[in-house]
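seq as requested:
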Amino acid sequence: MSRRIQILDTAAALFAERGFHGVSVHDIGAACGISGPAIYKHFAGKDAILTESLTSISERHVAEASERRSAHLDPGAALDALIAWHIDFALEHPALIVIQEREWTNLDPDGRDTVRRLQLVYIDIWVDVLRGLRDDLDAAQARAVVQATFGLLNSTPHSARISPQAMRDLLGPMARSALLSPAG
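struct tokens:
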């Protein structure tokens, strides 16, 4: 693992545990086994670490969702692939889910704009797939259903008290049902 990735991963864990303002560059450096000032060889500061953490995960979400949608001609299979990806990400990277929801206001305006733009692209990929399965939804309704499902999946850092596989087995059908069930 590169030093840069190590710093990002370590900082994400610390930000999730203590909050952005509860962590210093020296804390990040110490947790990485380097001095705090050595962080500046890789990042301009703590703000840049947060921005890159959230920008890079958003870029990764878009790339993975695009690939999964393209790999499946059948919208049901594409939806299952998207659900599996999002569940795996949430279970494997809970710190990033936590900092995404808690530290949004600490992003600089440019970082917020970039992350928001990427998130909207990610949502729209899901919306396109969902609308291929649900012609009863307009785009706004599909977006609401997708975002509500993300809320379910992104709750895992706060609710996962069973094994990761048991959580996958539980969340997959729940997400699929939430996305595909018509409103009552």
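The domain at 45-180 is CATH 1.10.357.10 (Tetracycline Repressor; domain 2).
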